[in-house]
Backbone:
């Protein structure tokens, strides 16, 4: 088992690799490539478990599963499947079954089925767990919740966790959305962090581990400190969006097919939780990239949104037929949005401005509709304040101060866990 000194030595070695060639290559190298460059030293002589999905690849699209399985000095003995499965063959929300991985013959333990946290039986015979999944930078995406629950189980079993770091596609500077309130922790809001948190998955793991935030899926259990190490990237800087990295984007889930969709996800996903209200491009080619319905006049909606003069965003009219879902085959009308100045835009409020405009034009208030379930909306928001107050006024101004609360404090705290400038 890795001792504290060994972990520190490995981290120092990884940091030296990172610093030695920083700036010499325009291409970002993810943690798996530095681990390979270290000849897998942290894993040698250990029975290794791996938490990953199709997004866990090197720059040549070779799977971390296959890299570790084929490495002669790595004994990979088990795989752990988050939402969508190890090979990405389970659609959104679908139950992942345990079984055998056909490519390697290794056992696969489901972390999105009967349990979302590794059981002692699942961890039996494991000396170290490796985590390698492309994050999307938003609190409600389930992979970071899986990471925290893996860390809890490993802490209880005295098993070290090694995170292979990857870029935050939203960059390392943007932080938006109030932290989760007590009573609203869930698998889509497990930590008391902003909705957009501006950290890589390795940095976030360090923060939740050291700050006592990893208190289980409901946020009420005792914090368990995990023996944690992070293999950093080389060449990543905080001002980078994913397009700046030179890395290929492998969809971590079906509705995030391109890195741009990761930016759109926090811009429209909350609105999408109200199923019968507005289509946000799900079931079409622009998931999270549009707001449309049969009854909307696209030109009027665009004109109303233009009148707000919102910084960093532009709108265009759009007309399309979804190929699946509630509006399959029906012509719908609305707007598509583009961030003309990402730094100036408050991306998480985009959807609320659209809802405000729709209310002003059509008096449609989904929060007052008896058919609307707000359970998941409130979970994703991490509070019921937004649904209550915005539902009362349908004015972004009524929630803006709340939505920004805690952001500056989190920025100051998170700097202590930065691995990159």
Residues:
């Amino acid at each position: 088992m890795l001792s504290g000194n060994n972990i520190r030595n490995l981290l120092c070695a990884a940091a030296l690799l990172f610093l030695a060639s920083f700036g010499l290559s325009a291409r970002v190298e993810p943690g798996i490539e530095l681990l390979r460059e270290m000849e897998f030293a942290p894993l040698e002589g250990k029975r290794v478990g791996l938490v990953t999905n199709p997004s866990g690849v090197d720059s040549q699209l070779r799977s971390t599963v296959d890299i570790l399985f084929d490495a002669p000095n790595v004994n990979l003995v088990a795989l752990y499947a988050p939402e969508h499965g190890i090979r990405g063959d389970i659609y959104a929300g679908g139950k992942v079954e345990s079984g055998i991985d056909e490519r390697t013959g290794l056992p696969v333990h489901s972390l999105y089925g009967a349990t979302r946290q590794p059981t002692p039986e699942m961890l039996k015979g494991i000396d170290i767990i490796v985590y390698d999944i492309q994050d999307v930078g938003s609190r409600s995406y389930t992979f970071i919740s899986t990471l925290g629950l893996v860390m809890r189980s490993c802490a209880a079993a005295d098993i070290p966790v090694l995170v292979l770091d990857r870029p935050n596609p939203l960059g390392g500077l943007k932080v938006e959305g109030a932290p989760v309130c007590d009573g609203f922790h869930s698998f889509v809001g497990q930590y008391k962090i902003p909705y957009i948190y501006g950290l890589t998955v390795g940095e976030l793991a360090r923060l939740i581990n050291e700050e006592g935030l990893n208190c289980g899926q409901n946020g009420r259990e005792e914090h368990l400190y995990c023996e944690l190490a992070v293999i950093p990237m080389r060449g990543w800087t905080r001002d980078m969006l994913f397009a700046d990295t030179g890395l290929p984007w492998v969809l971590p889930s079906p509705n995030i097919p391109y890195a741009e969709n990761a930016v759109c996800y926090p811009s429209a996903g909350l609105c999408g939780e109200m199923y019968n209200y507005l289509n946000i491009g799900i079931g079409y080619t622009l998931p999270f990239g549009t707001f449309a319905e049969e009854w909307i006049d696209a030109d009027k909606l665009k004109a109303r949104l233009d009148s707000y003069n919102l910084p960093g965003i532009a709108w265009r009219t759009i007309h399309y037929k979804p190929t699946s879902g509630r509006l399959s085959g029906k012509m719908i009308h609305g707007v598509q949005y583009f961030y003309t100045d990402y730094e100036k835009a408050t991306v998480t409020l985009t959807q609320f401005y659209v809802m405000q405009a729709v209310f002003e034009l059509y008096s449609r208030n989904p929060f007052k509709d008896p058919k609307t379930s707000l359970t998941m909306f409130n979970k994703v928001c991490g509070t019921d304040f937004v649904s209550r107050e915005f539902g009362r006024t349908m004015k972004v101004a009524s929630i803006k101060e709340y939505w920004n609360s805690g952001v500056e404090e989190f920025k100051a705290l998170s700097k202590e866990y930065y691995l990159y400038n």
Q: What stands out?
A: DSSP finds twelve helices and ten strands in the chain.
